[in-house]
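A quick aside before the break. I want you to see a complete sequence-to-structure record at least once, exactly as it would be stored in a machine-readable document. Don't worry about memorizing anything.
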Amino acid sequence: MKYYKISEVSKITGVAVETIRYWEKRGLIKPDRKYGNRRFYTYNTIRKIMKLLESREKQNLNLSKSIKKQLKEILDIIKDTNL
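That is the input. The structure line, written in tokens, reads:
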């Protein structure tokens, strides 16, 4: 099994090292600890990070759609009241 350092995982996924550590603290991912208690990640952890990114992108997309809908409603109200 191949192990990756946190800096390598960051480069592969595009996620900042600080974010990876934060997700670890929140219990979303769990690295293996080896060689002086240093973090090492497996391919499965990298896949999980990619799924977290996908989920976050979907949430942002849904939020964006919601905001656009709200703005359209506001513009319609303004148009109807001749403001």
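Two observations worth writing down. The chain has a mean pLDDT of 83. The domain at 6-81 is CATH 1.10.1660.10 (Multidrug-efflux Transporter Regulator; Chain: A; Domain 2). We'll return to this after the break.
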